[in-house]
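Researcher: Structure for this, please.
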Amino acid sequence: MTPSSSRSPLDGLTPPADPANASVRKLPRLLTWFTSRKLGSLLTGLSFLVVAVSGVLSFFSAYTERLAGVHTIAGFSFIAAALIHIFHNGSTWLRYVRGRITLLPSRVFLVAFAVTAGLLAASYQGVRPVLALLAWGAACRSTGAPPKTTYDKLILDVGGQGPLVSLDVKVGPFFRFTEPTYGFEITPQMAVWTEDEQGHLLDTLYVTRDEGRSGYDEGDEKHTLSPRPAALPVWSHAIGIQRGATPMLDRHAPAPDVVSSASPTDNVYIVGRAHKAGGRFAVLLELNSSFDYNDYYRRDSFPDEVAYSDGGNPAQPSVVYRAWVEPGSSRFALMTPIGHGHHAGADGKIDPDLSHMTTALEIVDRVVVEVGDR
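Model: Predicted structure, token format:
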């Protein structure tokens, strides 16, 4: 008789796998792989390489968002890799830190700490070798790069009731130059004013100081101030001309001090305020440089007109720019050249023929008008 068995018929059968339990078992293995010593070491080395290369490129070349992005992401990757490396090698690192005597750091750690602290302190305090290194890097980065645009700012009479009017004047290649015969540094005379739709003067917003007082220093011992009718004739006639004994002695009415200032020498924001609130109006800019002769406007071109031949070397006549603005509508407007003034200042008309103008059209690169309080 066969002895009875106590085994169940289900013994020996493998239960079906539970997908949830399988994924739980795989997770620790996956974490172990991602935090393995090999992966940590490789990530540390590769991340350090990218950080080092991108850092050196950033030191010698101009800033770009792409290079900065690569350097930043590689830096975070290096931090993650360093944490993995510390996880596996923490005990070894602690042995380097601890000295033979309990609670005292090792000599190697003290040297490493001193070097690191010294470099940080030198960078923070700006010691000469560090500044020299940074200056060298800045010089390398600026080589071949376009110069940075800087602006002066002239805030004039802003006490009126009308809208704020600002001119963004970006200088051109002939805004400032040296006169070759006498060595004078030449900057242009400028005037900014507003007109209504019928062409009537509303306000003078800005004028350079010499033109505003209608007197240019002749450079003699008495510092004689003489008018130059050909400098800004369109604006001068708009505010009113007082005729002199000769055209050379014609003077315009003096401008208030609150709208006059020294001639700008670089890019400039000119900020003023229209004194009358209202609708659409024009903003005009007139500018003129002495000594900018060309093949048409020569020294001997108009010998019978004393205000040209002996009137402060007006050379090419003034250029007039204009932009129409309407408060509450468009905030910005680009000024465009609409003509030039009379070469000898005989009248205040604007001649639209610019065919004989050369460098005078390159005194400014562009002028943008902004209307409205910021």
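Researcher: Any notable elements?
Model: The chain has two domains: 24-142, 152-371. Residues 24-142 form one domain.
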